[in-house]
Amino acid sequence: MQTIVLATQKGGSGKSTLTISLALAAIRAGHTVRVIETDSQGTLSNWKRRRPHAAPIVEPIYAAREVEQRLQSLGGEGVTVTIVDTAGGISAATNSAIRYADFCLIPTRPSIADIEATAATLSVIRAWHKPFAYVLNQTPIRGAARLAGAENALSNEAALDIDDIVARPIIMMRNDHQDALSAGLAVCEYAPGSKSAEEIRDLWRWVEARLGNEAAAIDEPIIEEIVETPARLPAMAALPSTQNDSAFFLRAPARS
Ligand SMILES: Nc1ncnc2c1ncn2[C@@H]1O[C@H](COP(=O)(O)OP(=O)(O)OP(=O)(O)O)[C@@H](O)[C@H]1O
Ligand SMILES: [Mg+2]
Q: Which parts of the chain are coiled coil (predicted)?
């Protein structure tokens, strides 16, 4: 089973919306998908109540220990992809989800304030040595210059090459996402022929390709020695790493 965690401290960046979109894209790509909601705000549970279809199952789990246990047991139930929606901020449950993630996605709007707000989440992800990518979301249709600035800011924040840490495609701001959420649907159901649905399908393909790459790249467990207390993680992340970050996170060799 592959576990994908959507996390960022910043509220409203699209964690829940993208969880739903990617879950349905993964189902349509042939996966058996489970969705875990660790945010007591309940966006996914509410969406599920409006939803006219049974799949995917959404499991609300708010306690960190239970998140860990569930992520360890789901693979034995035939689930091939689990997607975890987390709350804004840094919590013990988010830390647990990241600990058991195969890949972390950090949704962010393309503004400097939003990008700067991802730093704390990135620290936790790095403390657990997890592969990650940003998803530029709610990107205004017009504004190529701002977008280029945002990508550069992300690249600087992570000290890595844009092409390696920004998922493709970028996701534009489109009403379909909000309308689908209201209807208990995902965009690929609500507006299957739309650009919004196409972007999400392509994003899933990108994530799946990256998951395959990472599965081949990671060959040793390295998280056991890391202390579990979330409050200590950012400080730990600042310590010198025993591994070259880009070499670990990314299969592709670092570019000069
Ligand atoms: N690409 C998009 N285009 C238009 N609207 C979007 C897009 N992505 C998300 N939204 C909308 O932005 C709002 C916030 O999104 P969402 O609830 O997914 O964010 P979140 O990160 O889960 O927030 P929170 O931290 O509060 O849980 C929602 O109304 C959602 O429908
Ligand atoms: Mg949410």
A: none
